[in-house]
Design goal:
Blueprint (H helix, E strand, L loop, with lengths): L1 H6 L4 H45 L3 E2 L5 E2 L3 H11 L7 E2 L3 E3 L7 E14 L2 E15 L3
Antiparallel strand pairs: 1-2, 3-5, 4-5, 5-6
Length: 138
């Protein structure tokens, strides 16, 4: 009787599935969450690119031939309007560093925060910061 029970493999697949299914589910969900981070990164890069392009435009030309360029508030608003990928995290308000205008550029910075959540446990908070230089006409 004992030998027959030892050789009987009925139900082995169910036990293997019960052991591997939770791990597989958590891994697939983790890949999905990681994809959201990549989406947020792409959204930040897109918004910063749009803001940089907007910052280099001549918004209006005066009669003396002087260009009016976008202010820091306008640049920040443009970047904020173009951000995407905020499903599980939050974006900080875009900041514009104008201390380097004398060198011919400004720097726009955006930061994204997302707390990782892997169904069964919470992970660390991921912070992604991206910056872009806006070269200003002198």
């Amino acid at each position: 009787m004992t030998r027959r029970i030892r050789r009987d493999e009925q139900g082995a697949a169910v036990i293997e599935m019960a052991l591997s299914l939770p791990i597989l589910t958590v891994m697939i969900y983790g890949i999905f969450i990681l994809g959201q981070l990549f989406e947020a990164n792409a959204g930040m890069q897109h918004a910063l690119g749009e803001g940089a392009r907007y910052g280099t435009l001549c918004l209006s030309m005066s009669s003396t031939g002087v260009c009016t360029q976008a202010t820091d508030t306008q640049l920040s608003a443009k970047v904020n309007s173009k951000l995407f990928g905020t499903r599980n995290g939050t974006f900080d308000a875009p900041s514009v560093d104008s201390t380097t205008v004398a060198s011919g550029y400004k720097t726009i910075t955006v930061t994204y925060h997302q707390t990782m959540n892997f169904l069964l446990f919470r992970g660390p908070t991921i912070n992604i910061t991206r910056s872009k230089r806006v070269y200003v006409a002198s």
